[in-house]
Specification:
The chain has eleven helices and 15 strands. The protein is α+β, with helices and mostly antiparallel strands. It has two domains: 166 residues, Endonuclease, Chain A; 145 residues, ph1033 like fold, CATH 3.10.590. The strands form two sheets. An eight-stranded mixed β-sheet has the order 1-7-6-5-2-3-4-8, with helices on both faces. Strands 9, 10, 11, 12, 13, 14 and 15 form a seven-stranded mixed β-sheet that branches. A hairpin with a 3-residue loop joins strand 5 and strand 6. Helix 3 packs antiparallel against helix 6. The radius of gyration is 23 Å and the shape is elongated. The chain starts with a strand and ends in a 5-residue tail after the last helix. 34% of the residues are buried.
């Protein structure tokens, strides 16, 4: 038997939260939850005394960017929830809630406040053999995972404190950016309507928040040898569209190339990054930059690449629609 759960409700609490909460309360036996990200504590706030097992995936980047909240995990552990995590191998992306051996919910909703209270989510409730098979799957992965306790989580908080503070400062700096001027809004519209080439550049956020900020503040889309597809950067001409992609987040900025690629050796003056591999960069006038409102998209594994071909037409149209809605830098 399967029941579709559609995240639409006129009540103050959405269907996923109310339904999952009821199933937690009614569960006979172990409650098992696999969630790619965790920020919510409310769903399990009344589960003290129950056998609750929470399995997640944790990376340093998830902690820094807040995809998973260590404070929330510590709070859950302190109420008696048994937590384990994966950090190597294929990334855990499952969202499955299991209630004893009787029933389970397979859903798009992570154990996060956004998923349970704001997002449009959909899930399917299963029972019988299907639910039991999910329990078997969970237990197999659980046995191969690592134990997470409050002490380890607190250690990770301390180790990432500087980077989390840097990110907070960076976000605040972008929030203070003035509204997009009429001139730049017109340029953005012309850029979308033109027949120029379109390229995507990785911001290097995963490795350095400062690199991303420097590219924004100084007006360059940059890469450092060796990177995939350097010939793509050599194709850029003045007037082409440059999109900036933050790995794991999406496309956050769009600008107009002011000229072709420049190449600077290590130690050359005025580099974005003073030392290191040869720096390839495109001087760019940024027209829109939405640090916290990315266009969600999974990039190919490339640092700088051309998306001018017909196969990327839908991507370009979606970008136009997304960034036209956010007229602020």
């Amino acid at each position: 038997m399967a029941t579709v759960l559609i995240e639409m409700s006129d009540s103050s609490e959405r269907q996923h939260r109310t339904t999952l909460r009821r199933l937690v309360d009614e569960a006979e036996g172990t409650v098992r939850i696999a969630s790619a990200y965790v920020t919510d504590t409310g769903l399990l706030s009344g589960s003290r005394g129950q056998d609750v097992r929470l399995l997640t995936y944790i990376s340093r980047q998830d902690i820094i960017f807040g995809a998973t909240s260590l404070n929330s995990l510590i709070a859950l552990i302190d109420t008696g929830v048994k937590c384990r995590y994966l950090f190597e191998g294929p990334r855990l992306h499952a969202k499955v809630y299991m209630f004893g051996l009787q029933s389970a919910v397979v859903t798009s909703a992570n154990l996060t406040r956004n998923a349970l209270d704001h997002n449009l989510e959909v899930g399917v409730r299963l029972s019988g053999v299907a639910a039991a098979q999910l329990v078997t799957w969970f237990d197999t992965v659980w046995d191969a995972s690592e134990v997470l306790d409050s002490e380890l989580a607190a250690t990770w908080l301390r180790e990432t404190q500087v980077e989390r503070e840097q990110l907070s400062t960076l976000r605040k700096s972008f929030e203070k950016q003035p509204e997009l001027s009429t001139g730049k809004a017109n340029k953005l519209q012309k850029l979308f309507e033109g027949t120029n080439q379109v390229f995507i550049c990785n911001t290097n956020r995963r490795n350095s928040l400062n690199d991303e900020k420097s590219m924004h503040d100084r007006g360059y889309a940059a890469a450092w040898e060796k990177f995939n597809y350097p010939t793509h950067m050599d194709r850029v001409e003045a007037g082409d569209t440059i999109c900036m992609y933050a790995k794991g987040e999406g496309i956050i900025g769009i600008g107009r190339a002011k000229g072709p690629a420049e190449k600077l050796e290590s130690g050359a003056p005025n580099r974005v990054v003073p030392e290191g591999e040869r720096e390839w960069r495109i001087p760019t006038e940024w027209l829109v930059w939405k640090f916290d409102h990315p266009f969600r998209w999974n990039s190919p594994n490339a640092t700088f690449f051309d998306v001018s071909a017909d196969e990327y037409e839908n991507l370009r149209e979606d970008l136009k629609e997304h960034f036209s809605e956010f007229p602020q830098r």
